[in-house]
Amino acid sequence: MLILISSVDLATMVMRPVPLDAGIVRCYVKQVYRGFFNTYGYELYLQGRIGTDESDRFLLASKKQMRKNMTGNYGIYASPSCDEGSRVGRMGSNFLGTVFTLYDNGRDPQKVAKIQDGAAATASSATPESNLGPGDNVLQIREELGCCTYEANRTSVCIPDVDEMGRHSKIVRPMSQRDRIVSRMATGELTDLVKFVNREPVFREDLGAYCLDFGGRVSMASVKNFQLISADDPSMGNVLQFGRVADDMFTMDLQWPLSPFQAFAICLSSCDTKLACV
Q: Which intervals of the chain are annotated as region Disordered (predicted)?
């Protein structure tokens, strides 16, 4: 169970994998409306344990922005106000809404290269009094924390591998397109990555329909409902499940090796508009 002490602690905790011995962590996602134009976003809450006096705890909020190239971009924040100082990461999509990539707060490597080239040019013409040191133009390149791809009736998710202590075996910080997680998913080069796929529904004769068993945690049918299982070891059970319980409310249950940030972003990708394959 997560214990939230301060916004700084929260921003750190939500980026860490759920502890292996924590089991299933129960959360819910609420759709909210913000701003003058009443645009919608989502908020993630940790659900207090039933039968205790624990209250629900805020974890994360999202805000969607459209880019000039008409691709979606979700900012993810450790504050309900979604102020930039509380941003912990983001998720970007392609135009069709079929590929979503999760990032931390680092910078695009192409933009970093341009900034560093400009800084180098400035340094070469600067006076000694400018105090521009060799490390002043070194900027943090973003880390990829996962990728979701959508095809007809098929969802695939890859995240960097973690050990039982929640430590990454290798940080994914690609400097070229071929090293990105989405490119590696396409070629099957999944070393140091973990792959999950959606659980396929089972036909129930009593209902005459294909269904998933959400264990009573989901009460409304929706195309957004899903369960993720390990592609290599389905016996792990549901690593993540997400489903509608009201017009503006979903339950979200996760376990190791996902972090709350990764799980929330994956669920946001399920809610996003898709122009193909659904």
A: 115-135
pLDDT digit string, tens, across residues 119-173: 455 545 544 443 433 443 445 889 999 999 999 889 999 999 999 888 888 889 9
pLDDT single digits (tens) 90-122: 999 998 989 999 999 988 877 765 555 554 555
Burial (CB < 10 A; 0-12, 13-18, 19+), residue 79, is middle
- Is 186 part of a structural domain of the chain? yes
How many angstroms separate the CA atoms of 10 and 13, rounded?
5
pTM above 0.70, yes or no: yes
| Domain that includes residue 92, residue range | 7-125+137-271
State the CATH number of the domain containing residue 54: 3.20.90.10
Q: Measured between alpha carbons, how far is 181 from 81 in angstroms, rounded to an integer?
A: 31
**Cis amide bond preceding 257, omega within 30:** yes
Instruction: Identify whether 131 is part of a domain.
Output: no
Alpha-carbon dihedral of residues 110, 114, 117, 119, nearest 10 degrees? -120
What CA–CA distance (Å, rounded) separates 42 from 244? Answer: 13
The total number of residues shown for the chain amounts to: 278
- Which tokens hold the place of 108? 């695009």
**Is 220 a member of any domain?**
yes
